[in-house]
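Structure, all two chains, one model.
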Amino acid sequence: MEKNDSREEKIAAYLAGIMSPEEKFAFEQSLREDPTLQLEIEEYRKTMKAVRGWMEEDPPGMERTEQLTLPKIHPETPPRKSSVIPIRLIAGYAAVAILIFFTGFILGNKTRFQDMDLHTPKSPVQVQSIQQNVTPSPTPHPERKTEPDLDRRITRENGRIIIETSARGAATHSIWVVDGEFEIIK
Amino acid sequence: MNTEQHNQNDAILAGRAAKGDREAFSLLFSRWKRYVYSIAWKITLNEEDALDATQEVFAKLVSRLGQFKGSGFFRSWLGTIATRETLNLLRKPHRKRERPLDPILLESKGSHTGNPRTRIEKKEKRQLVEKAMEQLSPQQRAILTLGMKEDQSPGEIAIALGIPAKQVRSQLCRAVARIREILGTI
């Protein structure tokens, strides 16, 4: 019972036997001290008795249940094997296929671009190593030697590797484009 | 035969009926149709609706008998299904309207033995209770029926009707308080 329940609801809860032991103890204490509450309880008891009596009585029209028909009952049959492929099975196969595809894709890329992070600037030694091992397109300047004081930027665009170098403090700026198939030779 | 033996018999019959034994289902139907009708009538207060609900309960029971575990009492289990199905029926649109209680039927039911004065008083009291019950919602009548006719606890009623136990307690208290209020003024 809630604290804000009405007096009537508390009486009803008490008589219905649905009070907690603490609530019951507190209610019985106030019952001993309040003669009006005792009278109310007696009135409620009569009501509850009348309702219980009504509940126990046969309702009108009971004899009409003889007109009811027995529903049809079918012998238990073993469940038929469905010819339709369950959607869970299809989803499972699809998940496995996707997993295999992505695993292959990731492993393939890992082998191909191992040690080659195209977005992070490399140290001069690493860049030099990459430059020495890629096959350059016909446009670059093969005579230009890699100097330790060069600024280098390597980016990837539309499947091509673009290596930009420029000497610090100078106006010269070189671009190497690696197109087509390439691989890193260690 | 005591209640425990009856329940064992019902459990056996339910098991056989679940496997398609028509005779077993017929025995259960004969034994329990009046009980189901009685519960349905206490909630609907209408013969036609109560008969429809009883027919519906047994139609549903055909497929649900396999769910009866046999550990509890068949009567409580069936009472819960009857209450739930009756409430479902009352929620359906185009159902038959509640109609005033037939005084001839009310007079014809019950025992005709004993003091005529006592009998008249008893009849009047019953009519008063029925008038009070008409003022309650079907859910409140269902809660009262399970609580006062079937002696189920608020927790058990909550599970049976699929509503919180707190709501059962408050509805029960309000229903009793309302009946007392109506009986006090009629």
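Residues 102-111 of chain B have pLDDT under 50 and may be disordered.
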